[in-house]
Amino acid sequence: MSAKALFLDLDGTLLNDQKEITPGNRAAIEAALAAGHQVVITTGRPLVSAREQARRLGIPIENTVAAGDAANDLSMLRAAGVGVAMCNGTDEAKAAADAVTCRDNNHDGIAEIIEKYLVHR
């Protein structure tokens, strides 16, 4: 799979417990963007949003990575080419995902996903 886009949830995924983006996650997102990948925030109705954004970007949903942590992310995790649950996520999210991060939302979990599936450092 050649990932072209990363769809992210906010709370418990991209944002740490202080509602901030960690420096490591910020740097990884910048590297992904510089390499030509799309990074898209999907909240509320993640599957509908992810499918619509993928369509607008001309990227097959199979060529996307989704990151989430809770029940509202399940459909997005299942639909993406690779669904990755945060290690701090719910058991339900982990079961729906193809992979689970080693690092949580406070310790650059999104950077881990970007490095593994998009930028391959």
TrEMBL record:
It comes from the Bacteria. InterPro entries: HAD-like_sf (IPR036412), HAD_sf (IPR023214). GO terms for molecular function: magnesium ion binding; phosphatase activity. It holds the Pfam family Hydrolase_3. GO terms for cellular component: cytosol. Keywords: Hydrolase. Transmembrane segments: none annotated. The keyword Hydrolase applies. PROSITE patterns: COF_1. The keyword Hydrolase applies. This is HAD hydrolase family protein. It comes from Candidatus Enterenecus faecium.
